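user: At home tonight, take the chain set out below, taking as long as you need, and be ready to discuss the fold:
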Amino acid sequence: MGAPESPDRRRVLIVEDEASIRQGLADVLRFRGCDIRVAERGDEGLARAIEGGWDLVILDIMLPELNGFLVCEQLRASGQTMPVLMLTAKGDEDDIVRGFEVGADDYVTKPFGVRELIARVEALLRRRPHALVSTFSFGPFEIDPAKSEARIEEHGAESHCIALTSREVLMLRILGQEPGHVVSRRTLLQLAWGMNNVDRIETRTVDMHIANLRKKLGRHGQIIQTVRGQGYRLCG
C-alpha cells in the first residue's frame, strides 16, 4: 500500500522494529493529526519510502535486513527528498555524523522524551519544501522550493528543470542571500543541517553536498565558488 491520500494531513512513515516504540510514536503523531504508516524491517521501510508522498520518514538505525544508514542512503540515491529523522540508541558523534552524511535531516537519541520528539518532528515539517512557497533567484536559476527544483532558460532552448532535495534548496537559499559573501562550512552545518556543537565535529558532508550541487547545476555549477579555508560563496 502506498502513502495515504490525504492532502490536509501530514503523512509520516515510521520504520522501527521495536513494537512498543513503533506503536507509541504512531499514537502520539496520530493524536497530533498525522496520517501514519509503519514498517518493521529496513527493506520494507525502504520500499514504502521510495513510493513517495511522505512528509517525513522516522527511521531507526538498528533494523533487521537493512540498517537505517543503508535505508537512508538508498532512499536519497532514489531521488526522494522528504525529511528523514533518525532514531538511534547510539549517542556517539561518529554515528550522528554518518547519519547526516547519508542524508538524514535530524536525529533523536533513545531514550527520548515525547516533547523533544514532537519539537524535532514539527521543525522538520516546517522545513518541508512546500512550506517555503516563494521562489528566489540563484545566479541564472530560479529556485522553486514548492517543487524542489531549479529552472533555467537557455538561449534558443526550452526551460530546463533540475530536481533538488529540500536541503539543497535550503543551501542555495543561504548562499544566495548575499551574493559574494562567504558562508562558512560551520554556518551551513548550523543552518542547513541544524547541527549543534559544530566546532567539535569534523565532517566532509558540506563539501560532498556542494560537489553534488555543482554537478546538478551543470556548466553553471562553478557559480558556487570555494574560498579555501573559509567556505563557499555565490559568485557572478
The two ends are 47 Å apart (CA to CA). The chain is about 35% helix and 20% strand.
